[in-house]
Amino acid sequence: MPEAFESVYHVLGRDFSNAGKVSTTIKDTLKRLGISPAVVRRVAIVSYEAEMNLVMYATRGKVTLSVSRDAVTLNIDDEGPGIPDISLAMQEGYSTSTAEMREMGFGAGMGLPNIRKNADEFNISSEVGRGTKLFIRILPAA
Amino acid sequence: MSCMRACPTAAVRIRKGRAVKLADRCIDCGECIRVCPRSAIVPLTDQMADLSKFKCKIAIPSPALYAQFDSETFPSMIFSALKQCGFDDVESVSPACDAVSIATEIFLNEYRGQYPLISSFCPTVVRLLQVKYPELVDQLLPVLAPREISARDAKRRKSKETGLPPDQIGAVYITPCPAKIVAILEHPGMQRSNLDSAVSICDLFQTLAAAVSRVQESEHKIEAVESAAGLSWAFLGKYPRSLPAENTLSVAGLPNVIRILDDIEKGRLRKYRYIECSACLEGCVGGCLTVENPYLARGKAIKLQQSLPAGCIVDRREVETSYRKKEFLMDEYLTGRPLRPLDDDISRAIIKMKDRDQILAGLPKIDCGACGAPSCRAFAEDVVLGEAEKTACVFYWQKELADRIEQLAGLVRAQRQNIGGVS
After folding, report:
1. What is the mean pLDDT of residues A56-64?
2. I want to staple B283 with a disulfide (CB 3.0 to 4.6 A). Which of A57, B92, B204, B236 is the partner?
3. What is the DSSP string of B282-334?
């Protein structure tokens, strides 16, 4: 097992004034570790989309970052409404956002598709009424 | 310690009672110069005496210079005064500002890369991207700044007029900030700068103001070519200079620029085409080497602007022709120069990051600065990198001392018991 750095961040639902801070912290951490700019950028996009999903839909959530020489892994685990139809939610443009969220420039139905697009490994599971789990892994360019 | 606290990139440390600059972190913003209570930090500007090496000296004043004077002092009077101060000629930046606006428009129309593009005219912003956002460097607009275009044109013109070779003609920028000086020395995006030197507005102001008062009585006036749009480069507008407001933004002040860059990095602002960033609040009139309050300066610039012709003062087709000859584009790629990570090897960097977090957990996290680092986190990092001793933290040291005293007290108690009965 290569040496790994792990850190856990907590996100509160509806906490718009702090929204985006976790992904900024993650990004800065990766830079200090010497992760390549291309990977940092993809992680920044993915973690931001995931963080915004937590803020917009969940009651609370936890982002676990794990970094090793071989990969950057994010596990996102939330307590929230869950997603009834995952394949529908993965479609570009599909959104359950409210007018208020769209007003703020979110909820265009690109969040999950964008995460999948930027991830090398991606997994999503959800239980209605309980919450959603995301697994995202980004590998350095070969 | 004011400078250490003010530095937006944590590039200042106090070592042995003196401020030390970590060069790889510094982005030349000048915040340290602005806040130093003793004026101990001196920029690398030239003085007038340094300019004698040039046979012919052309002043290229930043439009921010005009805003240092009252609104009855027109640019033409300032130009005359600059000549009295020892310059052989003066070149207005306004035409180049108009031309660069057109060049930027053409570039934007033909650009097919990642959005948004980020303006590259403020050298501090360029440096900030190179150091802290290296993955965004490709999105910097590769169009030359007006000051560079002006310097090139002025030298060409003067060389023709005087027959002097260009290397004997000095183009001297009258600068509102130290970043422009560093940009001349390091010429990012260019094989070399067209400017040769820079004199700060604050160093020149007293002599210049005296010369301006003499100009008012004399007949001698030279024509200064100014435009309202050109002048607007000195301060921040609602929208980017001369560009349509649609899908463009204008941001000023380093903390605000940093927030915007964070958002760009997260992929949030892709619908914007162009974002103009300026490190100083209110733009160049807020530069740390100016003399007037930036808000008053901005007011004066707006007033002066109203008395100038509103239209573009350069020929659009001429600009297009020289654009096609690549006269407006940088001739070198801008590259990132990211901060060195905790270690060049990721696995070792991870170990150091864990050590850093462990040290940080034992620190008070009040960022008092007494250790000589701007924050407890920066201090913990310095310790891990071997650049600071843990005992430099007064809180850590106090606790260490208390623990040792406790240990000693324990030893004394034990000793007494061994001797038995003697108290």
Report:
1. 93
2. B236
3. TGGGG-TT--S-HHHHHHHHHHHHHTS--S--S-HHHHHHHHHTTTTB-SS--
What pLDDT shows up at residue A107? 67
Quote the pLDDT of residue B224.
62
Question: Would you call A3 and B347 a contact, using CB atoms and an 8 Å cutoff?
Answer: yes
Q: What residues of A are in contact with residue B266 (Cβ under 8 Å)?
A: 20, 23-24, 27, 44-45, 48
Domain with residue A52: its CATH number is: 3.30.565.10
- Measured CA distances, B274 to A88, B115, B118, B279 (Å): 34, 7, 6, 16
pLDDT category, A3, cuts 50, 70, 90? confident
Percent of chain A residues past pLDDT 70, beyond the cut: 94
Nearest CA to CA, how far is B221 from chain A (Å)?
54
* ipTM for the predicted complex: 0.87
Contact B353 A24 (CB under 8 A): no
Q: Chain B contacts of A31, Cβ < 8 Å?
A: 132, 338-339, 341
Bridge partners of A66, per DSSP, are: A6, A73
What's the one-letter identity of residue B197? S
Domains of chain B (ranges, CATH numbers): 1-37 (3.30.70.20), 48-324 (no CATH), 341-423 (1.10.15.40)
Residues in chain B, pLDDT under 70: 217-224, 237-244, 420-423
User: What 3-state DSSP class applies to B338?
Assistant: coil
Confidence of residue A1 (pLDDT cuts 50, 70, 90): low
Contact A69 B266 (CB under 8 A): no
From residue B53, alpha-carbon distances to A19, B152, B162, B198 in Å are 56, 19, 17, 14
Nearest chain A residue (CA) to B348: A3
Side chain identity at residue B188, one-letter code: P
User: How many domains, in total, are found in chain A?
Assistant: 1
